[in-house]
Amino acid sequence: MGSESAMVVCCIICLLLPSVVLQSCGFFSPYWIKHNSTSECFRGVVYNTGCPDNVEGLGAAVLGLQVTSFVIIVLTSIPTIYFICCNSSDDDDDDKTGCCTILGGCMVCLYPVAGVLGFSGCMVVVANFGDRDKGWAFFLCLAASCYVILEMFLCYCMLYMLAKNEKKNNVSDESGQEVTQYRNDNDGGGMVVGQTMEHHQIGISSTGEIIVRKLQFTRIFHIS
Protein backbone atom coordinates (compact mmCIF):
# COMPACT_ATOMS: atom_id res chain seq x y z
CA MET A 1 0.00 0.00 0.00
CA GLY A 2 2.87 2.31 0.74
CA SER A 3 4.39 1.85 -2.73
CA GLU A 4 1.02 2.53 -4.38
CA SER A 5 0.61 5.76 -2.41
CA ALA A 6 4.11 6.83 -3.36
CA MET A 7 3.36 6.11 -7.01
CA VAL A 8 0.18 8.22 -6.85
CA VAL A 9 2.10 11.12 -5.29
CA CYS A 10 4.83 10.86 -7.94
CA CYS A 11 2.26 10.85 -10.76
CA ILE A 12 0.53 13.93 -9.37
CA ILE A 13 3.83 15.77 -8.86
CA CYS A 14 5.26 14.91 -12.28
CA LEU A 15 2.10 15.23 -14.38
CA LEU A 16 0.10 18.04 -12.81
CA LEU A 17 2.09 20.32 -10.54
CA PRO A 18 4.59 21.69 -13.09
CA SER A 19 1.92 23.00 -15.47
CA VAL A 20 -0.34 24.28 -12.68
CA VAL A 21 2.48 26.10 -10.87
CA LEU A 22 4.07 27.56 -14.01
CA GLN A 23 0.78 28.71 -15.50
CA SER A 24 -0.46 30.19 -12.20
CA CYS A 25 2.74 32.11 -11.51
CA GLY A 26 2.98 33.46 -15.04
CA PHE A 27 -0.71 34.30 -15.38
CA PHE A 28 -1.01 36.32 -12.17
CA SER A 29 2.31 38.11 -12.59
CA PRO A 30 2.58 41.46 -14.42
CA TYR A 31 6.15 40.83 -15.61
CA TRP A 32 5.29 39.91 -19.19
CA ILE A 33 6.41 42.85 -21.34
CA LYS A 34 8.61 45.77 -20.36
CA HIS A 35 6.97 48.94 -21.66
CA ASN A 36 10.27 50.63 -22.55
CA SER A 37 13.92 50.32 -21.66
CA THR A 38 14.04 53.51 -19.59
CA SER A 39 11.27 52.71 -17.13
CA GLU A 40 10.23 49.96 -14.77
CA CYS A 41 6.80 49.67 -16.31
CA PHE A 42 5.79 46.04 -16.92
CA ARG A 43 2.58 45.03 -18.66
CA GLY A 44 0.85 41.82 -17.72
CA VAL A 45 -2.19 39.77 -18.64
CA VAL A 46 -4.28 40.71 -15.59
CA TYR A 47 -2.68 43.97 -14.42
CA ASN A 48 0.35 46.23 -14.90
CA THR A 49 2.96 47.36 -12.43
CA GLY A 50 4.93 50.62 -12.33
CA CYS A 51 3.01 52.00 -15.31
CA PRO A 52 0.96 55.18 -15.78
CA ASP A 53 -2.80 54.87 -15.86
CA ASN A 54 -2.97 55.36 -19.60
CA VAL A 55 -0.88 52.26 -20.34
CA GLU A 56 -3.11 49.33 -21.22
CA GLY A 57 -2.47 45.63 -20.74
CA LEU A 58 -1.61 43.05 -23.35
CA GLY A 59 -5.00 43.08 -25.03
CA ALA A 60 -8.28 41.20 -24.92
CA ALA A 61 -7.05 38.37 -27.15
CA VAL A 62 -4.14 37.49 -24.88
CA LEU A 63 -6.36 37.82 -21.81
CA GLY A 64 -9.02 35.50 -23.24
CA LEU A 65 -6.55 32.84 -24.36
CA GLN A 66 -4.58 32.79 -21.12
CA VAL A 67 -7.69 32.83 -18.91
CA THR A 68 -9.17 29.89 -20.82
CA SER A 69 -5.89 27.99 -20.65
CA PHE A 70 -5.55 28.62 -16.92
CA VAL A 71 -9.14 27.55 -16.17
CA ILE A 72 -8.85 24.35 -18.19
CA ILE A 73 -5.55 23.37 -16.56
CA VAL A 74 -6.93 23.89 -13.06
CA LEU A 75 -10.28 22.21 -13.71
CA THR A 76 -8.78 19.18 -15.44
CA SER A 77 -6.27 18.70 -12.63
CA ILE A 78 -9.06 17.93 -10.13
CA PRO A 79 -10.62 14.97 -12.01
CA THR A 80 -7.17 13.76 -12.98
CA ILE A 81 -6.16 13.45 -9.32
CA TYR A 82 -9.40 11.57 -8.66
CA PHE A 83 -8.75 9.36 -11.70
CA ILE A 84 -5.25 8.45 -10.47
CA CYS A 85 -6.49 7.77 -6.94
CA CYS A 86 -9.33 5.56 -8.23
CA ASN A 87 -7.09 3.39 -10.35
CA SER A 88 -4.53 3.03 -7.55
CA SER A 89 -6.92 1.00 -5.33
CA ASP A 90 -7.95 -2.55 -6.12
CA ASP A 91 -11.30 -2.66 -4.29
CA ASP A 92 -13.19 -0.23 -6.54
CA ASP A 93 -16.51 -1.33 -7.98
CA ASP A 94 -17.39 -1.14 -11.65
CA ASP A 95 -19.45 2.04 -11.34
CA LYS A 96 -16.64 3.91 -9.64
CA THR A 97 -14.10 2.66 -12.14
CA GLY A 98 -16.36 3.72 -15.01
CA CYS A 99 -16.70 7.19 -13.51
CA CYS A 100 -12.94 7.45 -13.23
CA THR A 101 -12.56 6.41 -16.85
CA ILE A 102 -14.99 9.11 -18.00
CA LEU A 103 -13.20 11.78 -15.98
CA GLY A 104 -9.86 10.64 -17.29
CA GLY A 105 -11.19 10.75 -20.85
CA CYS A 106 -12.43 14.31 -20.36
CA MET A 107 -9.01 15.27 -19.03
CA VAL A 108 -7.24 13.74 -22.03
CA CYS A 109 -9.53 15.67 -24.40
CA LEU A 110 -9.34 19.06 -22.64
CA TYR A 111 -5.77 19.11 -21.38
CA PRO A 112 -4.11 19.51 -24.81
CA VAL A 113 -6.54 22.35 -25.56
CA ALA A 114 -5.13 24.26 -22.60
CA GLY A 115 -1.61 23.88 -23.93
CA VAL A 116 -2.57 24.99 -27.43
CA LEU A 117 -4.51 28.02 -26.14
CA GLY A 118 -1.70 29.07 -23.81
CA PHE A 119 0.88 28.71 -26.58
CA SER A 120 -1.36 30.72 -28.91
CA GLY A 121 -1.60 33.49 -26.33
CA CYS A 122 2.17 33.65 -26.07
CA MET A 123 2.48 33.82 -29.86
CA VAL A 124 0.02 36.73 -29.95
CA VAL A 125 2.26 38.55 -27.46
CA VAL A 126 5.29 37.86 -29.66
CA ALA A 127 3.42 39.16 -32.71
CA ASN A 128 2.21 42.34 -31.01
CA PHE A 129 5.25 43.10 -28.85
CA GLY A 130 8.10 41.50 -30.75
CA ASP A 131 10.43 44.48 -30.28
CA ARG A 132 9.86 44.74 -26.51
CA ASP A 133 11.79 42.99 -23.77
CA LYS A 134 10.04 39.91 -22.42
CA GLY A 135 9.72 39.32 -18.69
CA TRP A 136 9.99 36.07 -16.76
CA ALA A 137 6.21 35.69 -16.49
CA PHE A 138 5.96 35.38 -20.27
CA PHE A 139 8.51 32.57 -20.32
CA LEU A 140 6.78 30.78 -17.43
CA CYS A 141 3.49 30.59 -19.35
CA LEU A 142 5.31 29.61 -22.52
CA ALA A 143 7.10 26.82 -20.65
CA ALA A 144 3.79 25.66 -19.11
CA SER A 145 2.12 25.48 -22.52
CA CYS A 146 5.03 23.61 -24.10
CA TYR A 147 5.12 21.23 -21.13
CA VAL A 148 1.42 20.41 -21.54
CA ILE A 149 1.79 19.82 -25.29
CA LEU A 150 4.87 17.62 -24.83
CA GLU A 151 3.25 15.76 -21.95
CA MET A 152 0.14 14.92 -23.92
CA PHE A 153 2.17 13.92 -26.98
CA LEU A 154 4.11 11.42 -24.88
CA CYS A 155 0.88 10.28 -23.23
CA TYR A 156 -0.77 9.59 -26.59
CA CYS A 157 2.30 7.66 -27.74
CA MET A 158 2.22 5.56 -24.57
CA LEU A 159 -1.52 4.87 -24.91
CA TYR A 160 -0.99 3.84 -28.52
CA MET A 161 1.74 1.40 -27.57
CA LEU A 162 -0.34 -0.05 -24.71
CA ALA A 163 -3.36 -0.48 -26.97
CA LYS A 164 -1.21 -2.14 -29.61
CA ASN A 165 0.33 -4.56 -27.09
CA GLU A 166 -3.05 -5.32 -25.53
CA LYS A 167 -4.53 -6.13 -28.90
CA LYS A 168 -1.64 -8.45 -29.61
CA ASN A 169 -1.81 -10.17 -26.23
CA ASN A 170 -5.58 -10.55 -26.27
CA VAL A 171 -5.18 -13.10 -29.01
CA SER A 172 -5.15 -16.16 -26.80
CA ASP A 173 -2.12 -18.35 -26.92
CA GLU A 174 -3.37 -21.88 -26.66
CA SER A 175 -1.18 -24.76 -25.67
CA GLY A 176 -2.64 -28.22 -25.43
CA GLN A 177 -1.64 -31.50 -23.91
CA GLU A 178 -3.32 -34.72 -24.83
CA VAL A 179 -3.27 -37.77 -22.56
CA THR A 180 -4.80 -41.07 -23.68
CA GLN A 181 -5.57 -43.87 -21.21
CA TYR A 182 -6.57 -47.44 -22.06
CA ARG A 183 -8.41 -49.92 -19.87
CA ASN A 184 -9.67 -53.38 -20.71
CA ASP A 185 -13.38 -53.91 -20.15
CA ASN A 186 -13.46 -57.54 -19.14
CA ASP A 187 -17.20 -57.62 -18.50
CA GLY A 188 -18.23 -56.12 -21.83
CA GLY A 189 -15.60 -57.81 -23.88
CA GLY A 190 -14.07 -54.65 -25.16
CA MET A 191 -11.80 -51.77 -24.36
CA VAL A 192 -12.52 -48.39 -22.79
CA VAL A 193 -10.39 -45.53 -24.06
CA GLY A 194 -10.22 -42.27 -22.07
CA GLN A 195 -8.75 -39.26 -23.80
CA THR A 196 -7.97 -36.15 -21.75
CA MET A 197 -7.04 -32.87 -23.38
CA GLU A 198 -5.75 -29.78 -21.60
CA HIS A 199 -5.73 -26.28 -23.07
CA HIS A 200 -4.33 -23.08 -21.60
CA GLN A 201 -5.71 -19.69 -22.62
CA ILE A 202 -3.66 -16.59 -21.80
CA GLY A 203 -5.04 -13.06 -22.03
CA ILE A 204 -4.75 -9.59 -20.54
CA SER A 205 -7.69 -7.81 -18.90
CA SER A 206 -8.54 -4.12 -19.27
CA THR A 207 -6.72 -3.40 -16.01
CA GLY A 208 -3.48 -4.96 -17.23
CA GLU A 209 -3.76 -8.21 -15.26
CA ILE A 210 -2.67 -11.47 -16.88
CA ILE A 211 -5.45 -14.07 -16.94
CA VAL A 212 -4.62 -17.75 -17.43
CA ARG A 213 -7.44 -20.26 -17.95
CA LYS A 214 -6.88 -23.97 -17.79
CA LEU A 215 -9.46 -26.05 -19.69
CA GLN A 216 -9.61 -29.82 -19.43
CA PHE A 217 -11.72 -32.04 -21.69
CA THR A 218 -12.21 -35.78 -21.25
CA ARG A 219 -13.64 -38.06 -23.93
CA ILE A 220 -14.44 -41.71 -23.27
CA PHE A 221 -14.77 -44.28 -26.05
CA HIS A 222 -15.91 -47.89 -25.73
CA ILE A 223 -14.30 -50.14 -28.28
CA SER A 224 -15.92 -53.52 -28.54
UniProtKB/TrEMBL annotation:
Signal sequence region: 1-22
Keyword terms, alphabetized: Membrane, Signal, Transmembrane, Transmembrane helix
Regions that span the bilayer: 63-85, 97-130, 136-162
The name this protein goes by in its record: Uncharacterized protein
